[in-house]
Amino acid sequence: MTINKTISALAFSGVLAASVSSSMADDALLRGAQDVTGGGATRAVMDEGPAQNRQQLFERMTDFQEYVQGKQLELLRARQTGALPDMGIKFGAGFTGTYVYERTNTDGKFPILSRLPGQHSGSSGSDWIVNDAAWGAAVTAGDWLTGYAQLEYIDTRYANEEDIQLRKAFGVVGNLDRFPLYAYFGRNTIDFGDTTTYNPFTHNMNTHFFWALSDDPVLGIGAVYDGWHVVGTIIPEGRHQRVASKEGDDFFGNYAVNVTKAVDFGNGVRLKGGVGYLHSTIYDTVVPHHTPSGIAGQNQSENGAVNANATLGWGPVDVMAEYTTTLDDWPATGKPVEALTVQGRYKDSILSYPTTYSAVYSRGDFGPSGSEFEFMEQMVLGLETHIDENFSVGVEYVRNHGFAPLINIQMTSDQSVETDTFVAGIHVYF
To answer: Which listed residue, 95, 150, 372, 428, has the most CB atoms within 10 A of its CB?
Structure first.
């Protein structure tokens, strides 16, 4: 079944979006979608409200599951609450580690463990994995200038890459209390789509195929007003860390536009919707690779992508749908690359510890019907419990159907692969 057919069956969530705080959340979270204006002030409208202190801010800045987009806006909102001072520097860090056990029906084919083909053999495997480890510093200089830098440990890296990399380094000019526009320049996550994942640890297919992360510095301009957040990003040509790519060396050759709107209906009900456009992606060559040297000498055919996402929340329940597709066929497979995620979560408690139960279905379609690389499908059931404000533990059960690595997808894919994966891990924020 293609993604388009799946979307038809799930049309109830196709174009709407909402985000709601749990009834267990604190007062700061419950203020999330309110617009506060007056005396020239403009308060950003987002899902769970601005960070109230240093620890909350760096939890979001170093998070790779839920707070994937809008890092520059998180800094500006933190300035509004006093989590960042008008002048000074704050440090923080985040760590995510997991133990992963995966069982496969096809020897050597592990969609979760084999981040690169050929890393594991046999019918089962396990590993201790450092999913994420990040160290950040936020600097403020007066009312309008904010800077941020983040070092990250990269567990899975390619040839000639260092294990510790400066993945974020950007400066922001803006003051949301005085003016609704801001601008930033530097290395950052590019605002495209939503890419939120309710799983404690495992990314969904939208994030896997369409997470846009810059390599060279980008220039972004954003507007925040009355529930709207609009961001336009100028992306230099060349191959970036994830999905953004365009042949050439012109600074103005690639770009992205992302628009979201949040509405608070009261009584714990909120709605958020978004659309996005990325002008040129990696899905433009016959042989896909994740490093610039891998595409050298290939003929590239510009291939953009569009996104629509929607979240609806009511009390402790959130449901979300996100769909992303390239505008043209991927030359490597002869079909567009599509990703669909439908997910839900319920916030409750276990022995007074805040706990989130999640269920996430996601699917990627990218090949002709009947081919070994037609699709990948994933279902995840998760549970995460916060033992303390800066420490949580979680478990996942992951069911995968299909094995289609983006490297040498025509040669290594196997549509018959089915795996069961069990994940246990921790999040720690400092």
So the answer is: 150
Q: Measured between alpha carbons, how far is 102 from 87 in angstroms, rounded to an integer? A: 49
Q: What are the angstrom distances between the C-alpha of 205 and each of 237, 317, 325, 340?
A: 25, 22, 11, 7
Q: List Cβ neighbours of 71 (8 Å cut-off, separation of 6 or more).
A: 60, 61, 148, 168, 188, 189
The predicted-structure confidence for 241-299, as pLDDT tens digits, reads as follows 888 888 888 888 899 999 999 999 989 899 999 999 999 999 988 865 554 444 555 55
Tell me the CB-side half-sphere exposure of residue 104, using CA atoms within 13 A: 24
Give the phi and the psi of residue 8 in degrees, each rounded to 5: -60, -40
Q: What stretches of 39-111 show up as alpha helix (H) in DSSP? A: 54-61, 71-81
Token digits for 86? Answer: 């008008």
Taken as a whole, the chain contains a residue count of: 430
273 Cβ neighbours under 8 A, 6+ residues apart: 15, 16, 17, 18, 260, 261, 308, 309, 310, 311
Residue that is written with structure tokens 């497979």 in the block? 333
Q: Name residues whose C-beta falls within 8 Å of residue 212's C-beta, 6 or more positions apart in sequence.
A: 189, 190, 191, 192, 193, 240, 242, 243, 244, 256, 278
Write the DSSP string, 360-391: EEEEEE-S-TTSTTSEEEEEEEEEEEEEETTE
Query: For residue 116, what are its two tokens?
Result: 């690169």
- Residues 295 and 150: their CA atoms lie apart, in Å, by 28
In this structure, are residues 373 and 410 in contact, taking their beta carbons and an 8 Å threshold? Answer: yes
Structure confidence by residue, pLDDT tens digits, 115-127: 656 677 889 999 9
Q: How many CA atoms lie within 13 A of 389 on its CB side?
A: 11
